[in-house]
Amino acid sequence: MPAPILRLALPSPLRRLFDYQAPESIPPGRLQPGVRLRVPFGRRDVVGVLVEVRTHSDVPPDKLREALSLLDREPPLPQSLFDLCLWTSHYYQHSLGDTFSWALPVLLRQGEPATAREQRYWHLAPDARADDPRLERAPRQREALKAIAQHPHGVPQALLGKLQLNRASLEGLIEKGLLRTEQRRSPPQPHHGSWLLEPPLPLNAQQRAAVEAVSAGFGGFHASLLAGVTGSGKTEVYLQLIHAVLEAGRQALVLIPEINLGPQTLARFERRFNARIVVLHSALSDRERLDAWLAARDGEADIVIGTRSALFTPLKRPGLIIVDEEHDGSYKQQEGLRYQARDLAVVRARLEGLPILLGSATPALESLHNAHTGRYALLRLDQRAGVARPPRFLRLDVKSRPLDAGLSAPLLQAMTQTLQAGQQVLVFLNRRGFAPTLLCHDCGWLSQCPRCDARMTLHQRHNELRCHHCGHAERPPTNCPQCRHVDLRPVGAGTERAEERLRTLLPDYPVLRIDRDSTARKGALDRLLDTVNRGEPCVLLGTQMLAKGHHFPRVTLVAILDADGGLFSGDFRASERMAQLIVQVAGRAGRAEEPGRVIIQTHLADHPLLVQLTEQGYFAFAEQALAERRAAGLPPFSHLALLRAEAHRPGQAEEFLELACQAAEKLIDENAAGGVELLGPVPSPMERRAGRYRAQLLFQSQARTPLHRLLGAWLPRIEQLPGARSVRWSLDIDPSDL
Ligand code: ADP
Ligand code: ZN
Ligand code: ZN
Q: What's the rounded Cα separation, in Å, for the pair 347 and 344?
């Protein structure tokens, strides 16, 4: 009988599987789909995942290479996660092997065993006794023996130091045959006692209804959207649902956004639960990540909390998935496998037969639409929990008013009043640096980035011009590079400049700047937040880092310096994002007894969306925005896919896209992919970035199926196009930025 043929998914962008011959040394029974094998690929060895075993291959026998070794006894991923990867690869039209690479921890991709780490254990020999006569003259060895005797399962290597056991005594005991060592994995730490460390809060009626609605769906697939205003007690709903999940002997997976939600959220879970919690965050080492992943897979973690990629964490006894702040942009991966973790979480819940809860104060329009059409159950929390009241909004028209570092006189007055009343002010300005550009007052020269179609931001403290798009940095010139005059002026204001002005204008109060620059050093953010939490009047000034997850009970005034960008951007999602940001920032105010106020500086005080948002709230805004999307045939009322391309030579990307476009049109004619429209190719909004010229081609379709059918037939063709190797290109399904 000929050796079986192994079809493997390999870490390669190519959308296909690769055939290998099974070595005779591997018993065929061990070749189950899902196991990893090491195989030769080009001149390297790579780790692949077995997808299928066949009896023949289309590859000629003399070209067929043999796999090198089998890495697993059992597939490292359970079937449901394997299926999720298949689904993901298919939906996002992405190579399956590369999809596995995104889903698996780094060490597994590299071939590390998918089993918990082993360590050395020290334990007594069967007949060892502390009164052994040989120990009479060796008191330290006797003490060591006694100490180890306290641990019936042995003492792991890592604990030796803590128990103050020295190496020499241990070696002595081994020589006498009284002690043995053994290499094994640490025993699982089972859960003991009650799950709760603190009593749950008594729920209000809406919270109770939400908990009941979700728990009624335990044991099967059921998707709900928890739309609760900030401070309405969504987290309490999560905690009580998780408690029910734990009581049922199951595990909960909680996805959170990327930016600094970690410590505060974690603290709340740890205060509430006597449970084994693992957190998957970016600061973990590869080994720590694998250990956490294995603990989740093997059922040794009860609650798994993590950002986007934690979605792919296998669970032995899955009970519930929660996606907190489901609207957050960080759930969309913007490179490689461009997946939307919130959407995939729903797919996963369906595959595993689980309830899923998406929560947000400002749900994505897509999610609201899904609630309207009945795909998600809509659960609402309309009131703030506890004593806090909703903030009041004021649109401050700054047309033709002088602005000082972005601040208008009436705003400064309101800030002063608030501070004098002993309260805190939060100023939101979503722009880092001192000034967004440097201008020559004589000739109009601007600090253009040499590699991008963008201006470089002046960072005065570091005396640098920096491009926020490509990272290019240089010293600001002292004379204009164009006319040699010296009258170079910073134009506009970023957080650094606003900070400087506020220090001068409000000398009696601390001004705390919180942005990526001021918090770059470890511990800096915590120090700043500690100062705020002390409660004395101060001004907190910062970017969207301030918008997420924090509670500032003493903040009673929130100032939004510039809301206009979101109202006239070319990206149809800009107004949604602006509204979410305003509501999230506003939600930081007045979370305790004091009511909050939100002042929005704008040049478009009568803009209907802004009026709707500030007078009737986010949900009214969202309805209006959805109506506009429907009228314009934009998502969620249609589906998009975007082919992006970039190249070193101007025009090169567009030439490639032009050919790609023709190939697509031909397919549309051939098999009538009805209703799919092509827009472009056009230069990207910022055509040149990091020295490359970029262009894009957009697909729009009322129905998803014809779009996907078309893309599936089209991709193999464009892979063959002349430019396909010299142009960098990628396909983004359901793109979030256009
Ligand atoms: P969200 O997650 O919706 O922003 P939180 O769960 O953080 O809201 O709740 C906001 C505040 O209200 C917290 O201090 C929380 O302890 C409190 N809270 C939540 N639910 C209740 C309740 N049922 N009774 C009293 N206080 C509550
Ligand atoms: Zn000049
Ligand atoms: Zn640049």
A: 5
